[in-house]
Write a structure and sequence with these properties.
Length: 308
């Protein structure tokens, strides 16, 4: 059994860690409401732009790269959204695991994925493994700004609009964490470009997201002024930026929720460990007292026998 001094040292260090965990939990709790609200408020705007783009695909015959995959170009851009800081449980590791699965799947299909990463944890992970990364962004994963979304979208859109002969990509995937509620957050894979519509059995139109068909109701007709091409040229950058910003915002809310849950569990575990160590120290003290009493009694008996 460890000495009482060693047990006391472990109790003191565990208590200090418990205070840190509790402070991190309180900070995350104070941030989660705002992060969730910002993510929810961004969704209507993104949905409106998404419906406009789907309407362009459905009701126009414009030959534009955003609506079709460039033939003969096997380069694919993959954006992985991770965290800047740790203490968020399996948040970043889940995103990295899904990103690796996407990269492996693309390699198996004979495509050449080009990786883009947001978040210091993901950047460090791939740099440590000497993986080529085309673009990185760090510093505000828990509170992503419009400036960051604009920087990411410009770089990715430029890569997509560049012809394959000049090093451009033909597809764009985003790996991010969708915020469901305070307990549940799911890692998603979004194929954002090119926009693609297919017909389901009911005649409704669907878009391809996560390699699955997601049904939509019949898309309303739009009137485009001065013309659809001009509207597309102006809406396209906003569409890409808004979708990326939404992914960053919902990932930020998921990161904060994951950190709060992880720190809550860590605080409880620290308290349980302190209770266990305290019990162990009391047992050690009791054993030491019992041993001392036994030695005193044995000594007294020995003295009595010597006198007799």
């Amino acid at each position: 059994m460890p000495s009482q001094l060693a047990i006391k040292s472990r109790i003191a260090s565990t208590r200090s860690l418990g205070k840190i965990f509790n402070a991190q939990e309180m900070i995350a709790s104070s941030h989660i409401a705002r992060s969730r609200q910002v993510a929810l408020e961004a969704k209507p705007y993104v949905d409106a732009l998404n419906n406009a783009m789907l309407s362009l695909v459905a009701h126009t015959d414009i030959d534009h790269p955003i609506f079709r995959q460039e033939q003969g170009n096997n380069r694919v851009a993959v954006l992985s959204i991770t965290a800047d800081r740790g203490m968020a449980g399996a948040y970043t590791s889940n995103v990295i695991r899904q990103t690796e699965a996407v990269l492996k799947d693309l390699d198996a299909k004979g495509k050449k994925p080009e990786l883009y990463v947001t978040g210091r944890r993901g950047v460090t992970y791939y740099k440590y493994r000497n993986r080529d990364v085309e673009g990185t962004w760090e510093g505000d994963s828990d509170n992503p700004s419009v400036h960051t979304a604009e920087s990411v979208s410009k770089k990715l859109l430029k890569a997509y609009m560049t012809p394959g002969t000049q090093g451009g990509v033909s597809e764009l995937y985003i790996v991010y964490t969708e915020f469901i509620n305070m307990v549940v957050q799911h890692v998603r894979v979004l194929r954002m470009l090119p926009i693609e519509l297919v017909e389901d059995q009911g005649g409704d139109q669907t878009d391809v997201i996560n390699d699955q068909k997601v049904s939509h109701q019949a898309i309303a007709l739009y009137t485009f002024e001065p013309n659809a091409q001009t509207v597309l040229d102006n809406v396209l950058p906003q569409y890409v930026q808004s979708r990326i910003h939404e992914c960053l915002l919902t990932s930020a809310a998921s990161e904060t929720a994951s950190r709060q849950n992880a720190m809550h569990s860590a605080t409880e575990n620290a308290n349980k460990l302190i209770d266990h160590l305290t019990l162990q120290m009391n047992q050690s003290r009791q054993a030491q007292i019992t041993q001392e009493l036994t030695e005193i009694v044995s000594g007294a008996d020995a003295l009595k026998k010597k006198k007799k």
